Every structure is written in structure tokens, then in C-alpha cells.
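#lab-general

N.A. 3:47 PM
ok so I finally got the sequence cleaned up, no stray characters, all 276 residues accounted for. can someone with queue access submit it? mine expired

B.Y. 3:52 PM
send it over

N.A. 3:53 PM
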Amino acid sequence: MSAVLQTTTPQLTRIELQPRIATELKVDPTTLLSGGIAAEIRVLLEQRGVVVVREINLTDEQQIAFTRTLGPLIGDGIAKITIDPAENKMGNYIRGAFFWHIDGTMLQAPIGAAVLTARRLAANGGDTEFCNTYAAYDELTATDKARIDNLKVVHSIENTQRYLNPEPTYAELEEWQRFPDRILPLVWKHRSGRKSLVLGNTATYVVGMGQRESSALLTRLRDWATQPQFVYRHKWKVGDMVIWDNTGTMHRATHYDLHSGRMMHRTQTAGDEPLS
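B.Y. 4:20 PM
back already:
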């Protein structure tokens, strides 16, 4: 889709990529790394969900430094996001990224912002799709909002793995069930006063509902939140950087050859807002 709005300031140009999600920034590395526009980026992330900087080609050190301008860095820095087991021992687990999800739903506070840069690409596929769960909630009917406002959902690692392996061995099941389930609100009431939907492949069932009714509700809401008007699809070029507000979006990778060598480098900021 063509840009719907472009604005320019002395430091950068902003281009809205979709009406309800995603803004592209045209900005140089020096400005990014200075931290001078970090506050503006944080506001954009809450308002628009996704910020894109095309072919910025940051080094790992620069990506870490930039991420620190947005908030406290998680871990030591770069995580290699690849399915290649020679590069990432968690490659099989990362295959769950082919399905809509929010990072860190099993943590006390989900990941804050995530920064992803493209290092090697698949010959076909491997785009990343994002949906704005703030906008999706805002545009629900009043009836739907009233119905779901206080519902709770059980989230589990087991559910994410059943997308990939619906008939596990008992040993595999035991491994998945080492991680405790979490009960989370279906509607995240943020301290800002805004609300967003908490969905994705960890969402197992709605507390107090029968299996059929629960499955129908979670599937309907996922379909609602991932309609084209709420979704931005990023077709990567090497050197692109995409930042997203993990507390107000879901994302997934489109399918690609598991032996393609696709490699993304990711940094994340620690979340500071428990789900409530």
C-alpha cells in the first residue's frame, strides 16, 4: 500500500505505511544513535505499533547502543534469530514464530520494545507481519468490549509447540510442561488508560468457558485483530531495521525454506508493565 501521510522535521521524515499501523522513518545512523529522537520513537511505537528504518545497516554494536536509547537492554545484546541449529540451539522453538504471537507472555512483564535487523534473507518468503492490538480493540463493538473486558485466558508453552507437533511423545510433553501456565487478562488495561488484546499462540483457553466456546472466541478475535486494516507486512532487505511495541502488537514470520540460512539479529528492552 502506498504511504498515506508524510511529514518532515529538521531531523527526520515520517511516512505512515498503513492508516492504523507502521511508520517509516528516514533518518541517519548518527541521529538514531544520539538518542535525541528516542522519546519520539517511543511515542510512535505506542501510537503506531511499528517503526521501520530501511537499509540503515547498523552494526551489532550500533544496534545495541540504539536499543539502549529506548529502554533497559535484555541480556548481553544480540540474539541470532534463525532456525539453523548450527547457529541457534533453540531453532526448533523459533519455528513457533510462523504463528501470531506476543513475545514474553509467559514472563511477569512482557518484552517492551523489540528491534530486528536483517542480515541474511531467504530466497522466498520470510516477510514479517505485525498487527496493532490497540487498534483492533478500539474498533470492537461496544457489545464485544463488554463481553470480553474481564475475561481471563490460560497461556502455555505447550500450546505453542502443539502448533508444530500435535502428537508429541510423552517425553516431549513433559519438556513442554516444565514451564508453568499463566493466567492473563484477555484485555490488557494499560497504565496509559488504553486497552489492547492479548492473543497469540500461547493462548490456550478462556477460564470458565467450554472448549468449543473458548476456541470460537479466541479464533474470532485473532481473525478480527489480523484483518488487513490492522496489519503491516514488512518485506525485508538486508540492512533493514524494524522496531515494534511488543505490548501492543502481535507478529509472525511468513513461511520460508528452513534451510535457507535466513538470519535476523534481535535486541529487546525489558518490559516494565505487568499484564493487568
